Amino acid sequence: MAVLDLFNLKGKIALVTGCKRGIGKAMAEALAEAGADIIGVSANLELEGSEVAGAVTALGRKFYAYQCNFNEREAINSFCAQVKADHPVIDILVNNAGTILRKPIAEHPDEFWDEVIAVNQTAPFILTREIGRDMIARGSGKVIFTASLLTFQGGITVPGYAASKGAIGQLTKAFANEWAAKGVNVNAIAPGYISTDNTTALRADENRSRSIMERIPAGRWGEAEDFKGPVVFLASAASDYMHGTVMTVDGGWMGR
Ligand SMILES: NC(=O)c1ccc[n+]([C@@H]2O[C@H](COP(=O)([O-])OP(=O)(O)OC[C@H]3O[C@@H](n4cnc5c(N)ncnc54)[C@H](O)[C@@H]3O)[C@@H](O)[C@H]2O)c1
């Protein structure tokens, strides 16, 4: 196969969670540019007529909008049943949706812990198990988890986030160990410090923002667009021999 054909996703269908904005939106658009139709899912009924839906359809690809609050276990189960009934074949699953709730550990409420673990850890586990089950039956599929620098580090005031993203690193390996021989690639992308709504407060704090930037070897914060290449790579035949990898996209932060 010619090398550029390895990245071609024509005829594939990709489910991207949390694709209304930020990294998920850039990834959905990139997968569509590479040829895939997109199933988008968001916590609210906000994807109908959204910018991402417009961008995907303008490329001549289909966009299917779904709603699911990943903080509700029953909603996840019904979403999985519905999307599998509507789309018997899903080739690519991108577990991007995530949330972060900050408070020092001594005052950290149970509700913060429960919500962050539910959205960042339990939902991607259930989705991957349910949608991946059909992938292993077919003998092909690509799963991409979204990790973080806090997959490797503890962070400050975000214990649930660090615990859930650490778990994502382990789940990536656990799924890969069972599914690599069944033709399904399971890998993760670990973003560094990226300019999205997730980091608005951090970037507004001039001192913290400057000290973060001084530690990034690339000398700049990341942008959502920096994830377009990595996601297409992990979703395509170009990465067929990659299993259980947590790929940092962090301007060099982890190597420092
Ligand atoms: N921005 C960064 O610096 C950074 C760093 C490391 C990891 N990440 C991870 O990258 C992913 C995308 O983050 P982003 O920066 O684009 O953030 P974002 O806040 O712009 O997007 C997060 C997405 O997740 C969705 N989401 C949140 N809670 C949900 C729920 N209960 N149910 C369903 N969907 C829900 C949101 O609707 C949104 O579309 C997340 O998993 C995040 O943890 C981001």
Automatic annotation (TrEMBL):
Q: Which family does it belong to?
A: Belongs to the short-chain dehydrogenases/reductases (SDR) family.
For this UniProt entry, the molecular function terms from Gene Ontology, in alphabetical order, are: 2-deoxy-D-gluconate 3-dehydrogenase activity
- Keyword list, A-Z: Oxidoreductase
Q: What range does the record give for the signal peptide? A: none
Q: What is this protein called?
A: Short-chain dehydrogenase/reductase SDR
Gene3D superfamilies per UniProt: NAD(P)-binding Rossmann-like Domain
Give its E.C. classification number: 1.1.1.125
Q: Which organism is it from?
A: Pedobacter heparinus (strain ATCC 13125 / DSM 2366 / CIP 104194 / JCM 7457 / NBRC 12017 / NCIMB 9290 / NRRL B-14731 / HIM 762-3)
